[in-house]
Design a protein that fits this description.
The chain is α+β, with helices and mostly antiparallel strands. The protein folds into 2 domains: about 5-85 and about 130-205, 3-Layer(aba) Sandwich (NADH Oxidase); about 90-125, no CATH class. It contains 9 helices and 4 strands. It has helices at about 5-10, 25-35, 55-65, 70, 90-100, 115-120, 130-150, 170-175, 200-205; strands spanning about 45-50, 75-80, 155, 180-190. A 4-stranded antiparallel β-sheet has the order 1-2-4-3. The model has no long low-confidence stretch (mean pLDDT about 95). Bound molecules: flavin mononucleotide. Flavin mononucleotide binds near residues 13, 158 and 161. Flavin mononucleotide binds near residues 159 and 161.
Length: about 220
């Protein structure tokens, strides 16, 4: 198993897979990596469907802009957000867990103030759709945990954000209106070894120079 840094450096988008099946343990390990991801207020809005059936993979390929590697991969994770993770009932449950597990005592600033937390907790249930961006951001963290774990296990993956024209995945899996697909992640043994895609240099991603540190 690779270290996190090795997995980050070695991960590539893999778009050709060997037909070999992957062990159930690997599937579980990848899902565990998602489960352990961080999320704002520990909402954990991610939900997954594990697809191994040939016909389902063919349908997924068609929906996801006919990308052949989706059908080729032995396992495809359909990654969704569940907006009900932001309902008042879920909020209360998570908050109680934080108290029970002693996490509340580790909070800082406004969040350490019981009155502020109470306000936050008692906000009425708004239209759950307003939480979509946050739910997607949190779920993307979980999906990248999955991609890195796949690499660490000697597997390959490729993020797929091309999820069809709208509604097809919902229909295919009979999803609730509050459950929205945000990514598809085919995983399997790589049948290619692509060179790293270029990245822009550090100087282009720093909005100001690094602080000069004196010893
Ligand atoms: C949110 C997201 C959606 C993506 N969707 C697709 C996709 O639909 N098809 C595809 O071939 N690659 C897709 N990619 C992969 C990117 O093209 C790839 O990560 C990028 O070119 C860098 O290459 P690397 O992953 O090999 O480092 C997606 C990546 C992300 C993060």
């Amino acid at each position: 198993m690779l270290t996190v840094t090795q997995a980050i450096r070695q991960r590539r988008s893999i778009r050709r897979f060997k037909p070999d099946l992957m062990p159930d343990d690997a599937i579980l390990e990848i899902l565990e990596a998602a489960r352990l991801a961080p999320s704002s207020s520990n909402r954990q809005p991610w939900r997954f469907i594990v697809v191994t059936d040939k016909d389902e993979k063919t349908r997924l390929r068609k929906i996801c802009f006919d990308q052949a590697f989706i059908e080729e991969a032995p396992v495809v994770f359909v990654c969704c957000v569940d907006l009900t993770a932001y309902s008042k009932a879920s909020r209360e449950k998570r908050s109680q867990e934080s108290i029970d597990y002693g996490v509340t005592e580790t909070l800082s600033g406004y969040f350490a103030d019981p009155a502020f937390r109470e306000l936050f907790l008692n906000e009425p249930d708004s239209d759950l759709n307003v939480h979509f961006t946050s739910a997607m951001a949190n779920t993307y963290i979980a999906v990248e945990h999955m991609a890195l774990t796949a690499t660490a296990l000697g597997l390959g993956s490729c993020w797929v954000g091309a999820l069809g024209e709208g509604g097809e995945l919902t229909e295919m899996f009979g999803l609730q209106p509050t459950t929205l697909p945000v990514a598809v992640l085919p995983v399997g043994y790589p049948a290619q070894d692509p060179p790293p895609r270029p990245r822009i240099p550090l100087s282009d991603i720093l909005l100001r120079p690094l602080p000069v540190r004196s010893k």
